[in-house]
Amino acid sequence: MTLYDNLLIECDENDIEVYEMKMGTKGLYSDNVIWINKSITGIAKRGCVLAEELGHHYTSVGNILNQSKTNNIKQEKRARSWAYEKVIPLNKFIEAHKNLISSKFELAEFLSVTEDFLDEALERYKEKYGLFVEFKGFTIRFEPLAVFEWFEYKNF
C-alpha cells in the first residue's frame, strides 16, 4: 500500500474528506476537507501533498493563505514539519540503513516520497537536531546523510 493510500485511510478514520480536483495550488485544507490538485502526477508526490495538508488539519488554525504574515508562515512550517515527521520518522532512516539503501533516489523510493520532500525533511531535521541525532543506539547524520550503529566493545 502506498503512502497516499495509508494517508487516505487516516483521513477516513478521522472524518476528513479528501477530494481531487484541478486547482491552482498543490493542495488545500479547510474545515476537515482536503483538496488535492488532480493534475499532480505521481503517487509519491500526491502522498507528500496529502501529508502536508493533513499536517494543516492537525496544526493550523484559520486562513493562512497570506504567507506574508509571520504567524501564517509559522503555521505553514509547523504543518510541513508534522508531515516530515509523520512520513519520515527517524526510525525510517534506520530501516533504510538495514535494507542497504545507498542513494538518495533509492531512499526516496523506499520511503514513497519525492526527492524534494526528502531534501526538505532533511533540512528540517538539521534545524531541529543539528547535523546529527542519537536515536535507539544509532547515530543519524543528516549531512551528508549516513546512519551509524554503535555497539559495545567487550574485551575478553
What does this 3D model show about the protein?
The longest helix is centred in the middle third of the chain and has 18 residues, at 70-87. It is built from six helices and six strands; from the N terminus they run H-E-E-E-H-H-H-H-H-E-E-E. It has 156 residues and is of the alpha+beta class. Helix 1 runs parallel beside helix 2 (43-59) and helix 2 packs across helix 3 (70-87). The chain has helices at 3-13, 43-59, 70-87, 90-98, 104-111, 115-129, and strands spanning 17-21, 27-30, 33-37, 132-135, 138-142, 145-149.
Task: Describe how the helices and strands are arranged.
Layout: H1 3-13, E1 17-21, E2 27-30, E3 33-37, H2 43-59, H3 70-87, H4 90-98, H5 104-111, H6 115-129, E4 132-135, E5 138-142, E6 145-149
Parallel strand pairs: 1-3
Antiparallel strand pairs: 2-3, 4-5, 5-6
Helix pairs in contact: 1-2, 2-3
Quaternary form: single chain
Largest sheet: 3 strands, mixed
Percent of residues in helical segments? 40-55%
The unreliable regions are: none
| Number of extended strands | 6
Short summary of the structure?
The chain is of the alpha+beta class.
